[in-house]
Specification:
It is a single chain. With 379 residues, the chain is an alpha+beta fold. It has helices at residues 19-37, 68-79, 104-111, 142-160, 201-217, 239-242, 251-254, 275-292, 325-335, 340-346, 355-358, 369-372, and strands at 6-14, 42-50, 53-61, 94-100, 126-133, 166-179, 182-195, 226-229, 245-246, 298-305, 314-318. It has a domain at 6-12 and 143-237: 2-Layer Sandwich (GMP Synthetase, Chain A, domain 3). It is flat. The strands form 3 sheets. A 4-stranded mixed β-sheet has the order 1-6-7-8, with helices on one face. It has a 4-stranded mixed β-sheet with strand order 4-3-2-9. Strands 5-10-11 form a 3-stranded antiparallel β-sheet.
Length: 379
């Protein structure tokens, strides 16, 4: 691609009240509750929400003593589904619990790797990617970063009471014009937000254009951009009361908005022995270090694992022609250890930190260990 080619790239985000994100947040709330009492918990929690029912399924092996129903109701209340007039309400939903222990066959390979009995094995096979770009201070692709700011801004205005007609379910989408690798301006902002029946579509559109967008987009706010608000019209019925939610269905929202590749494994509800999660976090950490060290403007790292084995099957570094690929590969080979036990220890992943990751992206947020650890000087 020519460095001067002009093109438009789009990414979307969803709010914490989106049905799939409700499920992700419940799953990560259960994971955190397990880790608070037993850091060695093995958790693979799947959640489905529909109408007035929440289904908890999967495998959990833990010494923690937990009330899964109470955790579920508290998570739903945190999001804001507390209206008893709605089918999906924290106090009135039915919680169906279908949880069993992790298979001993899987557990044996995790506790003692088949290729090194002193090491922890990967909790599953698969490929994971991490990505970083210097187009934002957070080293994130700008379209997904701005899309997250919009949905998070909707939640902030709803919870503060400034715009009491806002409801939890929402989506955003940002289309950004690039010239080569450089973002130039926002071309389109798309917002679909659930709302009270009493508010007009004109008032919602006015709020997005004049209040939300200028506040959250900052220097990237473009008054000349196209603003599309609730394009299908009224959006009163939303959330799990109207639609079905399932964990793990927003993996592109969770990662890089399509700008970087994704291996396909979801994050939420999985403890760090599952390399779908910990491997992706470490790849992001490594890609971020490559860019921060000045070895490339964009970097993508791929790792592949076999279940029960500690040593990765492969590690690949891509710099997209924006840096010294050979030097970046040598830096990764000499600096980073992709074995699961090292990842968990180096990033302190046995802490109950996962509810912080669920909404508005797992990457680019301050306070998470794969985002905040010290960066070395240029190599």
């Amino acid at each position: 691609m020519s460095s001067e080619q002009t093109y438009t790239f789009s990414s979307e985000s969803v709010s914490e009240g989106h049905p799939d994100k409700v499920c992700d947040y419940i799953a990560d709330s259960i994971l955190d509750a397990c880790l608070e009492q037993d850091p060695q918990s093995h958790v693979a929690c799947e959640v489905m929400c529909k109408h007035n029912t929440v289904v908890l399924a999967g495998e959990i092996s833990t010494n923690a003593t937990l009330n899964y129903e109470e955790i579920t109701r508290r998570a739903i209340a945190d999001i804001g589904y507390c209206d008893p007039a709605e089918p999906f309400c924290a106090e009135t939903v039915q919680v169906l619990i279908l949880l069993s222990k992790q298979s001993n066959e899987i557990n044996q390979g995790v506790v003692k790797a088949t290729d090194d009995q002193k090491e922890q094995g990967a909790g599953d096979q698969g490929i994971m990617f991490g990505y970083a770009s210097d187009e934002s201070p957070e080293l994130m692709p700008l379209p997904i970063l701005l899309a997250h700011r919009l949905t998070e801004g909707l939640a902030e205005d709803r919870k503060s009471g400034k715009h009491s007609w806002l409801r939890p379910d929402a989506k955003s989408q940002v289309s950004l014009v690039y010239r080569g690798n450089t973002p130039v301006e926002i071309a389109t902002v798309l917002i679909s937000t659930q709302h009270a029946a009493s508010v007009s579509q004109a008032e919602i559109a006015d709020y997005v254009r004049k209040t939300l967008a200028p506040r959250v987009l900052g220097q990237w706010y473009n008054p000349k951009a196209e603003y599309i608000v609730n394009p299908s019209g009224s959006f009163v019925l939303g959330g799990p009361s109207a639609d079905c939610g399932v964990t793990g269905r927003k993996i592109i929202v969770d990662s890089y908005g399509g700008a970087g590749r994704h291996g396909g494994g979801a994050f939420s509800g999985k403890d760090p022995s599952k390399v779908d999660r910990s491997g992706a976090y470490y790849c992001r950490y490594v890609a971020r270090r490559i860019v921060s060290a000045g070895l490339a403007k964009k970097a993508e790292v791929q790792v592949a694992y076999a279940i029960g084995r500690a040593k990765p099957l492969s590690i690949k570094v891509e710099t997209f022609g924006t840096g010294d690929a050979l030097k970046a590969e040598r830096f990764v080979d000499e600096t980073f250890d992709f074995r699961p036990a090292n990842i968990i220890g180096e990033l302190s992943l046995l802490q109950p930190i996962y509810k912080q990751t669920t909404n508005y992206g797992h990457f680019g947020k301050a306070g998470l260990p794969w985002e905040t650890l010290a960066v070395p000087a240029a190599v």
